[in-house]
Amino acid sequence: MNLRKAMGREHEIKDSDVNIIPVMNIFLLLIPFLLLTAAWVRLAVIELSLPSLGKDRAEQIQHDPKKLVLVILAIKETGFQLKSPGFKFDPVTNLNENYDHPKIVEQLKQIKQTHPQAEDIIISPDVKVKYDIIIQVMDKCRESGFSNVSLSG
User: Fold this and answer.
1) What pTM did the predictor assign?
2) Residue 80 in this model has a pLDDT that exceeds 70
3) Where are the beta strands (DSSP E) in the chain?
4) Taking the CB of residue 30, how many other CB atoms lie within 10 A of it?
5) Parallel, antiparallel, or unpaired for β 120-125 and 72-75?
6) Which of 10, 27, 52, 94 is the most buried (most CB within 10 A)?
7) Is 11 strand, coil or helix?
């Protein structure tokens, strides 16, 4: 070994390269792992319009309060219960753990025939009712002519 080199008296400038191979190896393993474990989520948009009392609507109700029809649809584990002024509907029970949607659509159409101006409906689901059932009921209400759907807790 040369003593001058060891003492640093010989001044040679060497090009030094940074070794990036270990970092590239980490990324080579990390990127596929992150892609495989990523949670891919599909978002669905539910069009929900809440009933509002605009100036025109508020004036109509003040002049003729009979035009305001309160329709409440309760969703329970055992079935549906529809409430509306002037109607007395029996509860619609489940058929083999399936909800009877045609029966509730029939009842909604009866209300719509009597009160064609009614567009508002309040859906009151039970805590244990699945989200999918609520969405199906909302769709059935819109098909029956009730465009303003509200959810009540």
Assistant:
1) 0.57
2) yes
3) 72-75, 79-84, 87-88, 92-93, 120-125, 148-151
4) 10
5) parallel
6) 94
7) coil
